[in-house]
Amino acid sequence: AQTVTQSQPEMSVQEAETVTLSCTYDTSESDYYLFWYKQPPSRQMILVIRQEAYKQQNATENRFSVNFQKAAKSFSLKISDSQLGDAAMYFCAYRGGAQKLVFGQGTRLTINP
Amino acid sequence: KAGVTQTPRYLIKTRGQQVTLSCSPISGHRSVSWYQQTPGQGLQFLFEYFSETQRNKGNFPGRFSGRQFSNSRSEMNVSTLELGDSALYLCASSLTTGPGANVLTFGAGSRLTVL
Predict the structure, then answer these.
(1) Is B43 in Cβ contact with A91 (below 8 Å)?
(2) What is the pLDDT of residues A45-58, one digit of tens each?
(3) Which residues contact A62 (CB under 8 A, 6 or more apart)?
(4) Does A102 touch chain B (CB under 8 A)?
(5) Contacts with B90 from chain A: Cβ below 8 Å
(6) Given this model, what pLDDT does residue B101 score?
(7) A93-103 pLDDT per residue, tens
């Protein structure tokens, strides 16, 4: 079974600084997708960024980018120029052939003004 | 375009009762998935429906069931509620199912408290 591990339960960063959230996963599949979701206090899960495993190029969405290391099964999220609105729980998720999303335990990100 | 709508947003039940939660997907989306979120177990997959058929099921007891209607709206039911069923139940919809980078759009969730 696939597993996703987020080793940082909590992270904090100063506003305007850069922070990196870690995620590792375990799978024997070769074709899969990885996602980062954000869950603010309103509880609604919002997609931040996604990565197709067959693509070597790291995905980027404005201030959000990933470092995808397929051989190491690592998928970290970098947030540049952190803003107060970035404060939330961040979940790393995997989806392979079974189609369901497998989530990590989450990282609570605090932005200090 | 309206998002994924879940009702009710909050509800309180007592042990032994049953509950039904509703999810209306984004217009045009035919796949609906359900997830349970608890502080201890995190986010766990319950089931996925596509075209009124259950396509995938997670590791939950038979007390958890669901269905999807012809308009893609979905309901999940939990019978004989236990204290451990207290959770945030999230529904997500996507255009289709199957391989691909189908993006799941989540609703705001239904917060169930079992007393």
Answers:
(1) yes
(2) 999 999 999 888 99
(3) none
(4) yes
(5) 45
(6) 54
(7) 999 887 789 99
